[in-house]
Amino acid sequence: MWLSVTRHGTARLEKLFMNNLDIIEKVVDGIRKAKFDAIVTFGPDNAQYLSGAQLPINYYQSDQLLIVVCLQNGKQVCICPAEWESAVQESTWIKNIITYRSGSQNIAAFISIIKGLVESIDNKHPVLGLDKHRVSQQIYEFLIKEIPTAEWRDCSTMVRNIRSVKTQNEVDLLEKVAEMTDHGINGAIHHVTVDRRTTALTLAEELRVHCQERGVDMVGYHASARVASNPEDLGVMWHFTPKFGYSRTNDFEPEETARMEIKNSLQGYWSDAARIMTLGEPTKEQHEAYEWLVFLREAVIKHIKPGRKCSEVFNLVKTEAEKAGISWITDLGLGHGIGISPCEPPYINASDTTLLEENMVLVIAPVIQTPLGKILYSKDTIVVTPLGCRVVGWYKDWREPYVPIASI
Amino acid sequence: MNNSTNVDWGKKWAEKARSLVGSPALNPGERLELDNKFKNVLIENNCEGIIAVDVSHFTYLSGVVLPYAEQKIFPQAAVFRTKNSSLDILICPPEWIHLSASQGWWGEIESYSYNDGSPLEVLVSTIVKVVVEKKLENARLGLDSSALPVLLVERIKQDLPNVKWVDCDVSLRELRLIKTKEEIKLLEEASRQADRAIISALNHMEGNIYDSLGYDIWEFTERIRVHVGEFGGSGTGNLTTLQGSDSAKYYRPPRRGVLEPGNLVRTEVSNHHLGYWSNSGRTFVTGQPAPEQIETYKNNIKLKNVAVNALRPGTTCMAVYQAVQKAASREYIDFWSEPGIGHGVGVSEREAPYIVAEDSTVLRSGMVLVLAIYTFGPKRELLCSKDTYEITEDGCRLLSWYKNWDNLYVVIGDTARHG
Question: Buried-most residue among A33, A354, B21, B311 (CB within 10 A)?
Answer without folding.
Answer: B311
